[in-house]
Amino acid sequence: MPVTSAQGIVATAPSSAGSTTRHGYTYLPALDGLRGLSVVAVLFFHAGHLRGGFLGVDLFFALSGFLITTLLIREVESTGRVDLRKFWGRRMKRLMPAALATLIVTTVLLAWYGQVAEQAHALNDGPWAQFYVANWHLLRGSGGYWASFALPRAFGHMWSLAIEEQFYMVWPVAMLVCARTGARYQRVLVGLIVVGCAASVLTMVLLYDQANPTRVYMGSDTRASSILVGALFATTVMRRAVSAVHRAIGPLMQWLCVGLVVVLGIGWATIDGPKSSWLFQGGLFGHSAAAALLVALCAQTPHGRVSRVLGTPPLRLLGTLSYSLYLWHWPIYVLANEERTGQSGWSLLGLRLVVSLAAAVASKYLIEDPVRFHTGWLRGSPAVLSFVGVMALGALFWAMLPQPDTAPAAFDPARIEALRPTTSTTALPAAPGSNLGIPGATSTTFGKQRISKVLFLGDSIAFDEQPAIEAAIRAAKVEVEVAAFPGFGVLSEKVDVWPIYTDTIARFAPDLVIYQLSVWDLGTVAQQRVAYERLVQLVRGNGSSLLFVTPPPFAAMDPKSTLPQLPDIAVSLAQRDPTRIGFVESVAAWGIAFALDIDKDGVPERKPDGTHICPAGAARFAAWLTDELARRYDGFTPAPVREWALGGWRDDERYRVPLGICANVR
């Protein structure tokens, strides 16, 4: 997130390109406009309305590198050195007040209105965010960058500000070292930047893990290239190169700007981060390089059409508010969720944007600008002591706040015992708005078969259900194994499950294989059918029976998902061989729509990510499943829920991480 004003950018640009600021620098409105577009992209991405909007951060990074390096070069050219204390002092005055206010105000509001998980994450993440190492803290316990925004982590966005501040701590020192090499220091600087970019990109490629790219996305070392490429375009060598291109192609320069805007815009609209492995093999650097080139071109042609459009008042205003908007928007999104506001979709987004804009305006004009422009008297030792004092008070704030109880909420087995599933052979009514989208789905049944071994297959949902399923089926005196793998189903692009399934079925020799339809079964309907037919052949080849079970409803679903077609495929396969293959809807266990707390007793059955399962939900599903198995098969008598639901499995780590994810709800 660039937190340096778009001032004093281009030594080669005429001073008439914009007004002169109080610092005597030339103001370039187009660069503020770019910041405005970038923050809008991030705001829409975090609301789930712009698939590739996360790439707006890369434009922020490139612009920050360009702006900061320009100011440092100007200081070296005029004084021959870099005053580190003044530079870091300006950065702290610009960054710290609003950031600390965001952290404290959000934490206090969550203490009043937040759920346990929200409070726990704020208290856990806040100190790291205050000291600008949030990215490394989040990496240490991250379940994934994209997944983190489905969880109540109010400071989950502070990672990018941490990376920028770490750059601000290191880069002026590097500039100072370069400045001491003599009159041709910029050649040394360019060489340093090129080597730094290459090392950063190479590190990203080597450390990339397709199953979880968060390490390379949020690491300071792997993201340095996005900032350094902006710094490269601030050097005299690159300025002259851009100027030469401008002289050579003249009016065509504007078409180059238009092309870059279009390319970046298409990327923001279409690129799906988790599925785009090329991003982490040079793609992010390429995007940042294109963004840095656009910044340099706009600075070179301040009167061009693209620069004038980017410099229009609305975009310029958003640019001046971009730091404040970025700081406040995500805590507001967390606080103003569907449950608290009663809104959803575009109406919820509109509410969030209005509140975020109001908070940003208040932050800028009541906190940031007064500290930035009206504390010139605070210099030297008093400034250092003030900074240390403020940071110490912030640390004391975190230390004094009581920690909430983040243990998984205890559920009453008697409530689950009282539940009974609907008759599985009866056609279910159409579920209005059901995430599965199958009208009148009918479960299939077949002749009684004796079972003594059950194998349960699935993805991360089944992984959350696993402890309860194992406890419930073993209590029924039946052997059970679960092969559940977070992040992939039978069509996973990450891991080939077929060797695992084949080996497990051959070794365990189950009488019955249960497959819970997977949210991770991507691909076309035809590809899904082929995969499901392969599963049928594998199971029948072992002499086992197969039962398809639908997953629980989800809070939200990608409109391009083919998940709604999976039950139809399973039903058609069951109809081919009703004696060996079955299908059952789990709507009796979950209901037709997502609910965090299904029976409103303060004990959540589902996790707030809208997908996964808490202990109460796992027990609820296991009780329903064992009743269903008893109805369908011989040799299976469910045990009372109290005999298996009170075991230590309820405190499994999958229900404790992230903090408070399954704690009591208000």
TrEMBL record:
Keywords, comma-separated and alphabetical: Acyltransferase, Cell membrane, Membrane, Transferase, Transmembrane, Transmembrane helix
Biological-process GO terms, alphabetical: lipopolysaccharide biosynthetic process
Subcellular location: Cell membrane
Pfam (any one): Acyl_transf_3
Any one Gene Ontology molecular-function term assigned to this protein's record: acyltransferase activity, transferring groups other than amino-acyl groups
InterPro entries found in the cross-reference section: Acyl_transf_3_dom, Acyltransferase_3, SGNH_hydro_sf
Residues spanning the membrane: 53-73, 94-113, 158-177, 189-208, 224-242, 254-271, 277-297, 317-336, 348-367, 379-401
Keyword hit for Cell membrane: yes
Gene3D superfamilies: SGNH hydrolase
Domain Acyltransferase per the UniProt entry, residue ranges: 29-358
SUPFAM superfamilies noted in UniProt: SGNH hydrolase
Protein name per Swiss-Prot or TrEMBL: Unannotated protein
